[in-house]
Amino acid sequence: MRITDSPFLIGRGGDTGNHLQLNDRRISRQCAAIVTEGGRYYLEDRGQRLGIFVNGEKIDHRPLENGDVITFGLADSYEITFRSSANGTAIPDMFTLIGKMPDADPTAAGGSSLSKLNLLLEASMLLHSRLPLDSVLATVLDHAISVTDADRGLLLEPDASGTLRPRLARGKAQVRLPSETFGPSQTALRMALEQHSSIITQDVAEGDAGLQAAQSIVAQQLRAVVVIPLYAMPRTSSAESMAIKRGDLLGVLYLDSRRRAAFSKVERQILDALGVQAAGILDNARMLERERERQRFEQELNIARDIQQALLPRGLRDFPHLAVAGINLPCLSVGGDYFDVFPIGEDRSAFLIADVSGKGLGAALVTTMLQGALSSLAMGADPVPVFRHLNKFLCEHTDVGRYATVFFGILDRSGKLEFINAGHPSPLLLRRGEVAEPFTEGCCPVGLLPEMDYASVRLQLEAGDTLALFSDGVSEAVDTKQEMFGVARLRELYTGQSEATLDHLQKIALDALEKFTRGASQADDITLLLVRYRPPEQGSAS
Q1: What are phi and psi of 176, to 5 degrees?
Q2: How far is 105 from 288, CA to CA, in rounded Å?
Q3: Which one, of 373, 423, 426, 431, lies nearest residue 397 by Cα?
Q4: Are strands 224-231 and 249-257 parallel, antiparallel or unpaired?
Q5: CA-CA distance, 390 to 395, in Å (whole number)?
Q6: Residues 6+ apart with CB under 8 A from 360
Q7: How many domains, in total, are found in the chain?
Q8: Do residue 419 and residue 285 come from a single domain?
Q9: 317 and 223, same domain (yes or no)
Q10: DSSP per residue over 165-186, as a string?
Q11: Structural domain harbouring 59
């Protein structure tokens, strides 16, 4: 993204006017800003709760240098690389750099140096051009041919295997050449890549013995050869790292001629600068393509998230004999937790909570499958054979590689609860101000052991009893010291809350979790389902 406004706002969501919107609920809505002062860019922390870091150092206000990496105190979240034109590729910097050279006389040789410098400045402008990529690259290649007075030029790019393949071939007077007929010197290419530097040979006959003997050079009677490797811009501002670690190879600029050449220092500098321009254009194009791929993937994740969220019960309605409240907060765009509540005839209602192993899209797909299978219980099927079938199905499809913990219950009007606990954390029972864990009986998660049998257990509820069902994203939430929230804290929180509404019970749990985990990233989804039994004669009180 281009920074066109000051302040340039960064944060979660767009409702606060953010120019750069980051889809991570752990990042604050008002997170950071980039401001322009005196021609420089400065990064400000504007409320990121984990802090803003530049190259791993926490900052409040700091000038940005080319290649600085901005992070948000999260090891598994966004990284932003700041890119500027202050590394010698800006037009004024180019002009100043060349003007300081001893023989940089733009009026020499009838103004030829001035015209070549003009080509360089035009190429610099192309770096931010909105023209089609191949058109921009062709112009840079044409400029390189003009500067060197070469017969032809070629731009090569590495394929997936690293083999260099021709992308564009040009001749004099901006003539397009068929790249398949262009035979560049493989010896010159290999030398440039091994040395990680340009090969500029004015006369092959007086140059390297290896080039003189190269078959393609001899066969094509070449006299001048120029090979400029194009590398990605380093991703750090550390001078030591820039000197030691080069970026990825983006391509090679290759030019040759059957005539002997004579390059001045200015022309050599212009050639190097054109190489920087070509590398910058290719690097930007690659980053743009990656960003488009990320956006496509993000769009698919958003669709999956919308589908998953749409399958959760909306506007939970109270049933004649129970009241419910629930919430699901995935730690990623999509998650492996879900809950459901549905009627089974007129006198019974089913509720369940499930947690699929892992997270992300794979867990979400299995979650959706489970939800569809368990929703069939609304037709009055016996839950025990359904669980046996689910377990067998998942175990037989071992390539899925997922299992799920499930707590499933059916509550009737008289308060009789029939439940199956397939490896899920025991729900809490809130009864007359006390909190207990009576659901310790259970079986293994579905999809773990193929021969596992499942059985249901019965329990009698009393009027006003409340069940608090939760995923391990609640009990195993951690603080900055990696201490877990734990079931004991949840029990203490709910003790004495028998008269509280379900909405209040949900709110105090979420508030306690947020306060406990503030400053720490979470690795699991948070799901909470509250179910309160109320005999029909008690009406709608919840």
Answers
A1: -80, 130
A2: 39
A3: 373
A4: antiparallel
A5: 9
A6: 332, 334, 335, 336
A7: 3
A8: no
A9: no
A10: EEEEEEEGGGEE--GGG----H
A11: 8-84
Q: Which residues pair with 322 in a beta bridge?
A: 319, 533
Predicted local confidence at residue 38, as pLDDT: 76
Residues 98 and 73 in one domain: no
In this structure, are 109 and 78 located in the same domain? no
Residue 482 confidence (pLDDT): 86
Q: If you average pLDDT over residues 533-541, what whole number do you get?
A: 68
Quick check: 107 pLDDT over 50? no
Give residue for tokens 């079938």.
Answer: 389
Are 212 and 104 found together in one domain?
Answer: yes
Report d(CA 139, CA 135) in Å as an integer. Answer: 6
Report the alpha-carbon distance of residue 397 to residue 195 in Å, rounded.
52
Q: Can you tell me the distance from the alpha carbon of 131 to that of 116, in angstroms, rounded to the nearest whole number?
A: 22
Tokens describing residue 301: 């994740």
Phi, psi of 285 (to 5 degrees): -65, -40
Q: What is the largest CA-CA distance in the chain?
A: 105
Q: What is the pLDDT of residue 308?
A: 67
Q: Among the listed ranges 12-26, 231-245, 290-304, 381-395, which one has the minimum average pLDDT value?
A: 231-245
Compute the distance between CA of residue 297 and CA of residue 346 in angstroms, rounded to an integer.
44
Q: How far is Cα 517 from Cα 519, in angstroms, rounded to an integer?
A: 6
Residue type, 267: E
Distance (Å, rounded) from C-alpha 442 to C-alpha 108?
91
Mean pLDDT value across the chain: 81
Beta-strand (E) ranges in 60-163?
Answer: 61-63, 69-71, 80-81, 152-158
List the one residue out of 336, 319, 315, 308 whose CA is nearest residue 527.
336
Helix or strand run (H / E) with residue 299? helix 265-311
**Residue after which a domain boundary falls, among 236, 258, 289:** 289
Q: Which of 185, 151, 182, 146 is nearest to 167 (CA)?
A: 182
pLDDT above 90 for 219: no
Does the bond joining 536 to the residue before it have cis omega, within 30 degrees of 0? Answer: no
First to last CA, the chain: 51
CA-based nearest residue to 454, from 524, 398, 403, 389: 389
pLDDT at 398: 63
Report how far residue 208's alpha carbon sits from residue 244's, in angstroms, rounded to the nearest whole number: 27
Handedness of CA 89, 90, 91, 95 (dihedral sign): negative
- Residues 63, 132, single domain; the answer is no
Q: Measured at the alpha carbon of residue 234, what is the angle toward residues 233 and 240, in degrees to the nearest 5?
A: 145
Mode of pairing for the β-strands spanning 8-11 and 20-21: parallel
Mean pLDDT of 6-23: 85
Contact 541, 349 (CB under 8 A): no
Half-sphere exposure of 179 (CA within 13 A, CB side): 12
- Regarding pTM above 0.70, the answer is no
pLDDT in tens, 335-383: 678 899 988 888 899 999 998 887 667 777 777 788 778 887 888 888 9
